[in-house]
Specification:
The chain is α+β, with helices and mostly antiparallel strands. The protein contains nine helices and 14 strands. Helices cover 33% and strands 30% of the residues. The N and C termini lie far apart (43 Å).
Length: 276
Amino acid sequence: MRQSDREEQRPLVGVTPTGWHEARVSRRARTIPDEVAVAFTYNQSTHAVMMASPADLEDLAVGFSLNEAIVEHPGQIEEIRVAVLEDGIDLRIRLDADRAAGLIERRRHVAGPSGCGLCGIDSLAGAMRPPKTVGAGLRLTPDQVLAALDALGPHQIWGRESRAMHAAGWWHPDRGMALVREDVGRHNALDKLAGALALGGLPASEGVAVITSRVSIEMVQKVAMAGITVMIAVSAPTALAIRTAEAAGITLVAVARADGFEVFTGARRIAGLDLS
């Protein structure tokens, strides 16, 4: 998608709140992110509903489908229709016959009583599923890590304006920051990035993921599903995220700032940092 097309989506809203600054009351215009309920409906059956920014929705549909292992590649999705409804947006996704049958069987296998949250052992096992193992990937210098981090900010168009949106970017040593997706949800931003990579046919393993949030297990799992071998985050990881990154073979760089960063797993991919 061209940058101009993304700007036209603009998932932002203008408001004029009443403020109190320096002991004075005033009215100041402010831009805030929009947030809507988005349903993922596969072959006329709703699979999940989440809150998200109403932009790059085709990327979100594909990325979510890939990261949740509903499909293995975008070719197994026959159609995506974005239906704007009164209460939100319905992503109506039609799978091919084989993937549709597999999803029906998966639902049957984990069926449980309504309102149970995580329904039994199968759902817990699904939440803690072993991550996909990534390949050898690329090797970076510390300066390249900092360059990737620095390149994300200028592409956070909506985040810079609203100061309330996460971003996930894909940085390539030769192409620079080639893709960026933004959303009010950090998971959604990463799903959108994965979808854009897949739809664009880009070699995910030849670049690195740069994210503006903390690193949880789900973020590592999504990066692994995309086949990206290095992820860079501005905040700290959880202990489970570190264990998951180690199991996946991912190089996890976090607490990244302009003056440095910390490598929690896979230091072999960062030149000069493998002290083992």
